[in-house]
Amino acid sequence: MKSLIFKLNGKGDAPVDLEDFSVFSTALQEVLRRTYRSIEPTANLPRYKIQKLEIGSAICECGSDTSGEVVFDNVLEAVQAIRHKNTPRFKLTSNDLRAYKKLTEPLASYTESIELSDVPIDQAYREGCEWLLANAPHSVGQSIGRLEGVNIHKQKFFRIYPEGIDRGAECYYPESLHSKVLSSIGKRVCVEGLVHRDPDGIGLDRITKIKEITVLPENDEVPSLMRLFGLFQEQPVDVAAGWGE
Predict the structure, then answer these.
(1) Domain annotation for the chain: domains and CATH numbers
(2) Contact (Cβ atoms closer than 8 angstroms) between residue 68 and residue 47
């Protein structure tokens, strides 16, 4: 697909609200960015541009260079899958799904209906996003990473960054653990609670109902296997100990 067309219709045949148009355009740009990143994790992001605009209903045709065109088919495939409560075939994190859900925000304002290349962005689509998020795997367990980014504005949470992963997961904790969280900032920790995974069951989305936070030694503080052998180098070892005749 060489272009992506979206159409907004104002309520009661009214002209499309400027803010609604801006909100949808921004949400679509974020969806395109996240989808491209799921396909091409390291490549430079493509540039998207408006190729055609029509008024009455607001109809916008978006195009891109060759590297960006690959995203259009994937976005439409994902939107269609989500409407039917199916997980898209390519990896989308829970945060990616939340970005997809934001495509529906103008419907809560002055917009009657939205189409993305003839695929409705409607209540069924919104319910699909919510269903996939609600049914992502979750279980009581543990996760290890570096504790950073404490927030106490409305809900108390911090972010944990597993080793080798740049995306942090929000961890919601009770007041009783606040002093422990503050003393653990920047440290490697093990968090125990209800671990929520991404829809693929692999990526870490967030942790709720946290019961315990344990500070762990840094990797360079953990004794190596050779050092552990060294602790017993003065002790005789009988490999047959415990075996009968």
Answers:
(1) 3-134 (no CATH), 138-221 (2.40.50.140)
(2) yes
pLDDT of 24-76, one tens digit each? 999 999 999 999 998 888 888 999 999 999 988 999 999 997 778 889 999 99
Kindly report the number of other CB atoms within 10 A of residue 216's CB atom.
15
Question: Hey, what amino acid is at 232?
Answer: F
Contact between 94 and 205 under an 8 Å Cβ cutoff? The reply is: yes
The backbone region for 227, taken as left when phi is positive above 0, alpha when psi lies in -120 to 50, beta otherwise, is alpha
Beta bridge mates, 191: 143, 213
Distance CA 208, CA 192 (A): 9
pTM of the predicted protein model: 0.81
> Which whole-number Å values give the CA distances from 43 to 12, 30, 38, 40, in the listed order?
44, 16, 11, 6
Separation between Cα atoms, residue 32 and residue 69, nearest integer Å = 10
